Amino acid sequence: MKGNRWVDPAPFEGARPQVPWWVWLPGWVKLVLAPFALAWLAVRLVVRLAVLAVRYPVAVTTGLGGYVAYRQFGLSPLVIALLSLVCALTVWYGLDRGSFLRHGWYRVLTEWRRLTVYVPQWRTVMRLAELSKDNRGREYRPKLRRVRSEGWRDKVRVRMIPAQSPEQWEARRDNLAHSFNARSCRVRVLKPRVLELDFIHADPLARPVAVPQLAEPGEVDLKRVVVGRTETGKPWRLRLLGSQVLVVGVPGAGKGSVLWSIVWQLAPAIKAGMVRLVGIDPKGGMELGQCPDAFEKVVYDNGPEAVALLEEIAAEVKERATRYRGIRRRLSLGLPPPLHRPCLAVVVAVVGLGTPALSDW
Q: Residue 199 in contact with residue 154, Cβ under 8 Å?
């Protein structure tokens, strides 16, 4: 009390300590439960060690193997074994670099990044990014599951806490990327409550892909035309048979490279007469004029000639539909002579410039 005014005491800022429930048990009950508690702790310790061995197989196997070898044979044989292992890994790298990276180096890198990057910082980053919550003194924190490093990216699997949505993680992608020293972060939903974060460290497509050798005409597969390489290092395949492919991008993004990669892969079949390639270039030949010999027919405008070519193609498609009605639904390369007709591929360089001419078609 100060004068005639009441002054509230300073609020207690500390959290009330949580007393374990077993503290209130009688002494004889604790004595009876002690063996069961010790057994439970032993089981938990074994489970933790098993999980550690699963998450760090290379480190655990190498450490245990080295310790056993040292105890059994001494230091000199251990050094010789390590040098032999290094030589074997070097030979493996020289013979098959891709296999060495996938089955050897990336596994070591996975364990290293999990141990030095994600595990030490996970709790702090989750708290500062406001992705963990406190409720009645209990912290709910997203669980770090599997980590897989592929050199240019780390795939981190996460289990969300209750009442959390992927949009909350999407809103914090930049925060997570900078927290874990990555260029960017992508969020993908695998199943309910399970996300996979892609932490990008490098651009795998920075180096140009070498032009592949031409295949034999009979080896051209219109269902799996290889036009490049994906960011995961796997071949990028397009299905051309019975489908349409739309390539969209800003100027300079590489749309032309996709087009000419398709033409390059079809070149053996075009030369053998198994594929007919026609094109429409409304830009006056700026795109398809680079290699007109690959096309059976090319129109360099979006006027009546382009419309006439499309009408000719439509008439041929209807004729084929009538011819093969009840016999085949879709053409393919390598049909017997009675059914053999060249597959028709139509390339339109710029669709936006071609649509005005078809407004009254």
A: yes
**What is the rounded CA–CA span in Å between residue 51 and residue 118?**
16
Rounded average pLDDT per 10-residue block, the chain, 361 residues:
56 60 81 88 91 86 86 86 89 88 90 93 94 88 93 94 94 94 94 94 83 81 86 84 84 84 88 87 83 87 85 86 71 54 83 53 47
**Token pair for residue 117?**
């990057």
Distance (Å, whole) CA 213 – CA 129 = 50
Fold of the 96-200 domain: Threonyl-tRNA Synthetase; Chain A, domain 2 (3.30.980)
C-alpha 152/C-alpha 156 separation (Å) is 13
The CA distance from 295 to 273, in Å, is 12
Q: Write out the two tokens for 234.
A: 């796997």
Using CA atoms, how far apart are residues 294 and 244, in angstroms rounded to an integer? 20
Distance CA 150, CA 155 (A): 8
Q: Which residues contact 116 (CB under 8 A, 6 or more apart)?
A: none
Does this model's pTM top 0.90? My answer is no
Residue 194 neighbours by CB under 8 Å, 6+ apart: 145, 157, 158, 159, 160
Q: Which residue intervals of the chain bear CATH 3.30.980? A: 96-200
Query: Tokens 């364990």 map to which residue?
Result: 111
